[in-house]
């Protein structure tokens, strides 16, 4: 298909040169109109191939073709302008379209979006995108018709459906204005800088929007449809609806003039036409400058918006971080609140329990108060009763004191009836080691009589009577039960003497001291005295207890509490010149004891200091007379009464046959002192005027107990063996003599002006 447009027949070459200077020729209207902006490919593609040089060859030089149609080719003498060339309507400035569209699109979309990297590149990108977007439909149509023919390609432009510029531009402008107004009406957040910047920003935005609106409104005239200008010989028919509304009447006239068909030879008309077009172009240039200014304003607005956006983003990030912190704090507060709520629940539960407990306790408290009130009433009653009872108690104490005195008198009377000197006989059992020894025949007739039968073949029998006879199975407690009444007499203010007499090994020390597992009379007496003293305190009596431990060995006195090792001269002296039976020992240690333990301790000391040795009848024989004296001084402060009693506990040395003795001097002294004791007893029995107390230390010391104001008890201890028969008979005969002795009536010690009368 030949796309060459046939040369119009009416177009003739001018006869002579125009009245232009030199060789210049007026450019064609088409060239002038499309010279700066008609370089688009669309238009190039729509251009018909040059009718010239078709005969040059089969290959067409397209560069030549373009050049042949350029403005410079107008001077060619063979140039033939196509008829339709002057009828081409001026194409609306694409730059103007692009600017308006770009501004509208920027306002609608990109102004509120962050600028990425290079702002210039982005702006160009928007420009390119907007232009390509506008040309999409047209480009596609053109490309599809390029290979057919220019005419068909131009005709295909008729199908180009451009969006109505006025509507599009107006809508874009409206969007821009809405965006700007929104930006200006958004209250500034955070720093005041944003608020202060909003005013110029709004102003610029308003200017830009108004410019865009004006530009787009001016561009509301639709771009010339190619189909109009492409129709050969037909004049352009401006569409009334698409005609520009802001160009004014001059522009309309110029357009009409320009579009008016001017003969080629009418240079004046053509010049006028060109002048009008130049004028239109100048106006267009001014408008483009305004648009450019608006674009710069928009660019500044865009930059400002970007900066604001950056600030807003920073502020947004800060607010986001702050929000995150607040959320974190809120979570922590929620957690703490939950814990506090749990704790509060527990506390309320505990409070509930405590309230219940308080209620119960309050009830109990009320009950207790009632009980307290009752008790107070009861206490008042009891207090009155107590006063009454105290009066009664005082009277009873008086009665008891008097009764105790009566008891003492009665007790002493009984003791007097029993005799002031009494004799108890005790037969010890044979030891396990003494099983081989032959025993005498012992026949216990009653509690007071005993029959001794010799087991040497003579069958000799002897009867003895005493105050009490104790057989070998008698316990220490049974013995002391018969002794304790005498101790009570000592507490009542009487002198008491208890001594053990008998052959060596007959059981004297066992009876008086006893052994650890079976205590004798002395330790039991100590316990009884301290128990009685405690009981007497209830009657108002306070007792002072003093003790001395004396030993008579070979007629010499020794203080058993003296552990100094020095020898002191102990002398037995008369206590009172009027009463020659009361004696005391000078220089002896008399210790006051407060406790039983202390007294037992002193007893052990004395026991260790006592002289002992082995004898034929005893491995550990006491070779001296030991005298333990306990003085009891009772005081009744209320009655101003004092009673002094004493207990002499004597463990005599054992008599020994000179035949069996290995220490004769010791044995002689022992036997002599025992003999003197017998003489005194006999003198008392015979009621002699002279009683030989002073013949021995022992009798001298026991003088108050034997012949004076004393209650005396003698144990006669005998061994059960046949080889002791002679000594046993001697002891029993002596004890019988003592038992027959009737001492004078014992008197109670009197105390006058604090001095004791012994
Ligand atoms: N009633 C008794 N029951 C058990 N054993 C006893 C009894 N009497 C004495 N004995 C024991 O017999 C032995 C001799 O007794 P004890 O030493 O008391 O005799 P004594 O008369 O004091 O002798 P001496 O005069 O030589 O000192 C001791 O071993 C003692 O334990």
Automatic annotation (TrEMBL):
The keyword Cytoplasm applies. This is Kinesin-like protein. Its main location: cytoplasm. GO terms for biological process: microtubule-based movement; mitotic spindle assembly. Keywords: ATP-binding, Coiled coil, Cytoplasm, Cytoskeleton, Microtubule, Motor protein, Nucleotide-binding. Residues 212-257 are annotated as: Disordered. GO terms for molecular function: ATP binding; microtubule binding; microtubule motor activity. GO terms for cellular component: microtubule. Residues 420-741 form the Kinesin motor domain.
